[in-house]
Structures are given as C-alpha cells and as structure tokens.
Amino acid sequence: MTSARIAFGLGEHEDAARALLRSEWPLAELPSCVNEPRFWTMTCPSFNGLAGFAVLANGFKGAQAADDPRPYHPVLEYLVVDPRVRDRHLGRQLARHVLQEACTDADEVMVEVERERVGAARFWTEHLQCTVMPDSDQTASKVMRLCWSPAGA
C-alpha cells in the first residue's frame, strides 16, 4: 500500500483540485461557501502533484431560526483520486480519513454516488462498509444515497 499525506483544506492545491474534479465531471465546480464545504487534499511521495481530494458539504435539513447555527449533516460530495495513482489503496485511505473526521461532529455521513458508477457504489459498500439508504431516503433517480457511521465500520 502506498503511503499518503492527507491534509485539511485546499492550500496551494485549489487549481489542481478543480482540474482533477473536471477530469471526472466536466461541468463540476468546487462548491461555494453556502454549503459550508470542508476540503481535504492527498499527496504521496511517489507522485508529483495532487493525488486526490475530497469535499464534504453540510447537507443541513429543515428550517431553523436565523440566529441559530445550522446543524451539521455531512454529505460527501466528491472524492476523487487521480487515475495515474489508482489501484494503490489511496482512495480507501482518503475516504477513511475524511469519514472519521466528519464523524467527530456528527453520527453519520451521507455519501452520494451516481447510479451509473457501479464501481463507485461497490467501493463504498465493500471497502468502507457503507449501507444503502432505504428507498424512502432516496431522492434523485440518478443518485444513490449511502450512509457511513463509525458504528458500522
């Protein structure tokens, strides 16, 4: 397994993260501050540049008073690993790190996966023990919602 350095924030990697994101989803953009995104970047000694990154947003639910802080409901929006360093378990390292840090402020993390990306759904269910949320919690027909919690990992 290749060792990785995972850091909170984008730092000097913002442009590289944007390019890596667009290599997977050409129309995608890094999220704005509205959904209170949290970013993690991953580098590794055997690769020059950004090996991967993850974005966790606050998928806050329901109405609330204007003066109250929004409750934290983490949703993993993106986890991207550069194709040149895939199959080295780097995605698993990054995902575990992000999920564990996200659950310091919440009981669970929602992971959304495009249904057409069968390999991605398998990655989350087999390697990270995510569970598919019940049909009543599914929304868009193109997206499958999964749930990760420290208790289930």
Please specify the SSE layout and strand pairing.
Layout (H helix, E strand, L loop, with lengths): L4 E4 L5 H11 L13 E7 L2 E12 L15 E8 L8 H13 L6 E6 L3 H10 L3 E2 L10 E6 L5
Parallel strand pairs: 4-5
Antiparallel strand pairs: 1-2, 2-3, 3-4, 5-7, 6-7
Structure characterization notes:
- This protein has 153 residues and is α+β, with helices and mostly antiparallel strands.
- The protein has helices spanning 14-24, 90-102, 118-127; strands spanning 5-8, 38-44, 47-58, 74-81, 109-114, 131-132, 143-148.
- It has three helices and seven strands.
- The protein has a seven-stranded mixed beta sheet with strand order 1-2-3-4-5-7-6, sandwiched between helices.
Let me know the largest β-sheet.
7 strands, mixed
In sequence order, what are the helices and strands, one letter per element?
Answer: EHEEEHEHEE
What's the tally of helices? 3
Number of strands: 7
Coarse structural class: alpha+beta
Residue fraction in strands = 25-35%
Shape: globular
Q: For the residues shown, what is the average pLDDT? A: 87
Q: What share of the residues lie within helices? A: 10-25%
Which sequence of strands runs across the widest sheet?
A: 1-2-3-4-5-7-6
